[in-house]
Specification:
Length: 287
């Protein structure tokens, strides 16, 4: 993500990059009627608003998860407010992001969730009797996989499920060490291709999303579409789609004991109720 990379000397490259992106969009928009559509308030949103102003056309800014993190200091919050107020249309990928956008800009912000890629998902299938708990995502602290491992380690040894986490990242060795110390059967296959992901959802019994922060929560939504019950945290768009006690269970982030209890209580058969919750997120619905 740009906000992680733009630090130290690399920050000096951001301004010329933004100028280059803005001029490129202006040239493109001058060729005919167009709408400047920017994902994230920076860089995409800022570029879209500037290009739209210069060409007297309309702009859309679509907020994602890292937008809140970027705007944590006063200067960037001011800049985010400026970008959002000058956009003609403002959207967030979840209700919580839309609410943040409204609080910053004092303008209306709609909700348009991320679309599902149906090609990478299997059709809903029966839950395997001896499947594993599945996590998916970058192996970084914000995804909360350390909490998930701790939660599985709190379960009774005789009923403790195997855990698979699909993804790569700098926390790999730390997660393996934590699992070894807690007696958790952890499998880390690394990153897999999008088309392979369907197989992982199909083989899983439950999908866990223990994130500390999310903008949307795509993994939870994909799991529901694949017919799997979800244990997730109450962050981002997850509460918008996971019906507590119906298609999954929701717990507060950073609470291993609560997550363990949810893993014990959840009924994998609830996964059959998931596809109806995300039926409007296919590519056809997004146009």
């Amino acid at each position: 993500a740009m906000y992680r990379e733009a630090r130290g000397l690399k920050a000096l490259l951001v301004v010329p990059m933004l100028i280059s992106m803005t001029f490129a969009m202006i040239r493109q928009m001058r060729s005919g009627p167009a709408v400047a559509y920017g994902h994230w308030w920076i860089p995409g949103g800022l570029v879209a608003v500037l290009a739209a102003r210069c060409t007297r056309q309309r702009s859309v800014v679509h907020l994602h998860g890292s937008d809140v993190v970027i705007a944590q200091n006063r200067i960037f919050e001011w800049l985010a407010r400026l970008v959002l107020r000058h956009a003609d249309v403002r959207l967030g990928v979840s209700g919580s992001l839309a609410e943040w956008g409204r609080s910053v800009s004092q303008r209306e912000v709609g909700v348009l969730a991320m679309p599902l890629d149906e090609d990478r998902l299997p059709a809903p299938s029966p839950v395997p009797e001896h499947g594993f708990v599945l996590g998916v995502g970058r192996l970084v602290p914000e995804k909360g996989f350390d909490v998930l491992i701790e939660a599985v380690g709190l379960l009774d040894k005789q009923q403790r499920p195997a855990l698979a986490i699909v993804g790569a990242g700098p926390e790999r060795e730390a997660l393996l060490e934590r699992a070894r110390r807690l007696g958790v059967d952890l499998h880390l296959p690394g990153a897999v291709s999008p088309r392979e992901m369907g197989n992982w959802y199909r083989r899983a019994r439950i999908v866990a999303v223990p994130s500390r922060r999310e903008g949307f929560g795509l993994v939870g939504v994909e799991a529901l579409a694949a017919g799997r019950a979800v244990v997730a945290t109450t962050v981002g768009g997850l509460p918008d789609f996971v019906d507590h006690g119906v298609s999954g269970l929701l717990v507060e982030p950073n609470d291993a004991a609560a997550f363990a209890q949810a893993l014990n209580l959840i009924d994998p058969a609830w996964g059959s109720r998931g596809p109806s919750r995300v039926v409007g997120l296919g590519s056809e619905a997004h146009g």
